[in-house]
């Protein structure tokens, strides 16, 4: 078990395990894997509190979503994903960045119900919890019930690939809700490789690019920082400027790594505290990212919790 945040245990989200391939199984259900960030909604006497995965109260940042949830027909704790839907009708993590929020519509995709009118539902089967969730959700353009498909994960995954979605979720139909735990009862199957990373430094600008050349990336391994490569693509001019403004405030004199890494002579080191997400082609034999592309910062994750995510076979 791994504690995921400063949230009370009963509010901590259940976490999924990355697996290597889709499958068909009558004992499982399959849902879209949304490209946003996790958000827990607690509704009590019509008042709504929204929490990020790392325990921050974010109700004021998403006032419209909180107001929509005031119409939930029960006191409840709901688990879901906040996403931004682009013009293509697909959720995109990049659009959740503050500078781009105006380009997309926000949507809270609710997929689980852990408490209802004081009753703890976490030991009840997933499909029962989802049925009860659907019954209390209001009809609102900012709220969606996360529908599921039974048994056929391979076909659902092929559809997700065709639509350009991030992937699918596979959940055991009778699974309980394990607050704060990562279990094999929930699996995530991605259409492309992605990894959360911690920014450890940035290199000097090159050619005509302003602000910086590339970011130095790290993950936590045991009690140290492990270098996993540089990322120099995926940045707009606006992103370069805004990110550089955050990084210069975190400058430190020394590298956080125990050994030497690439381009140290042109690197400005920063305190490893900013979490980002990248997509990439594969891991190299040295444990570095091949062809990473920057997607954006993640404010819902803590740097010390970022480790290399490894695929596990379901067999």
From TrEMBL:
Gene3D superfamilies (UniProt xref): 3.30.1490.70, DNA ligase/mRNA capping enzyme, Nucleic acid-binding proteins
Catalysed transformations (reactions): ATP + (deoxyribonucleotide)n-3'-hydroxyl + 5'-phospho-(deoxyribonucleotide)m = (deoxyribonucleotide)n+m + AMP + diphosphate
Domain ATP-dependent DNA ligase family profile: 99-200
GO MF term (any one): DNA ligase (ATP) activity
Family annotation (InterPro entries): ATP-dep_DNA_ligase, DNA_ligase_ATP-dep_C, DNA_ligase_ATP-dep_cent, DNA_ligase_ATP-dep_CS, LigD_ligase_dom, NA-bd_OB-fold
Translocase among keywords: no
Signal peptide, first to last residue: none
Protein family according to the UniProt entry: Belongs to the ATP-dependent DNA ligase family.
Name of this chain's protein: DNA ligase (ATP)
Species of provenance: Bradyrhizobium erythrophlei
EC main group: ligase
Domain of life: Bacteria
EC number: 6.5.1.1
Keywords, in A-Z order: Ligase
CDD domains (UniProt xref): Adenylation_DNA_ligase_LigD_LigC, OBF_DNA_ligase_LigD
One Gene Ontology term from the biological process aspect of the record: DNA recombination
